[in-house]
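FW: tagging you since you asked about this chain on Friday. Here's the raw sequence from the shared folder, copied in full. Didn't touch anything.
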Amino acid sequence: DEIALVAAAGLEVGALEVVAQSGAEDEDHLVLVLAPVAGQDASQREVGHDDGRDAPAAAKPRFKLSLQRVTSVASPYIVSLQEAVDRNLRLYASPQAPAAGIPAPTDHVSGLHTTHSPPMAVDEANATWASELGANQAIFEHSALLPLMSSQWTLAVAAAAADPGQTVDRVELVTKAARALVESLGVYSDGLPGDLKRELQREEDAIVDALLNWVKAGGGWHRSTPSVLPRAGSEEALARYVEAKRRQTKLDLLTAAYLHSSAAARG
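HL: got it, structure written out here
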């Protein structure tokens, strides 16, 4: 029930396939997946020759085993090894380009890095970019919210300690830290689009509330909150889900503000 589109300069999206589950709630499962190693050259992308001979040892593609969490919606994109053998399927270590002039999905695209992208060259520019990628991914997944809140909490405690005559309880300090984070990333940040800044100002209290609930649960939603729409669940479960999704949209505003602010700072 969420689609995230992240822009990269020069990247054109020609089509978007959305896979959705139907029926009852379907939790994810751990699956041992055999996947190709990214960054292999063309001589390593195909197993065997058309005449059935094995490829030279140096040209054989490399694969790796990894545990991945998937749901039933991923089943059309996963095939068991037994089925590959039974159907005599040919394994490719990298998807083929869909047409002449169009790069294959695993080819390098400037400004875009995914789990299928080839390894980046080791240099200072890529090291800096990798650091930015990590920071952006962390804020996109909200895992960076706790460290950011911790920094604001330290400042709030220091400000309270500087005024001995002021009595501030822990809840008030946490609330101040959350509001300071929202204001620093959005309300008082330069370089934000006008519509985003207006939305941040209008939803400031709701964003602070969502942030406090996220922190209170230890960096997530309450463990009893369903991860997908509970179509056959209780009214209570549905209410928890709807409330979590509402708060999620508020944290998404904070994410958008962070990405714009960090991009403006680098520019």
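FW: Residues 42-52 have pLDDT under 50 and may be disordered.
HL: agreed, and The helical segments are 81-86, 124-140, 145-161, 170-187, 194-202, 204-216, 235-266.
FW: great, closing this out.
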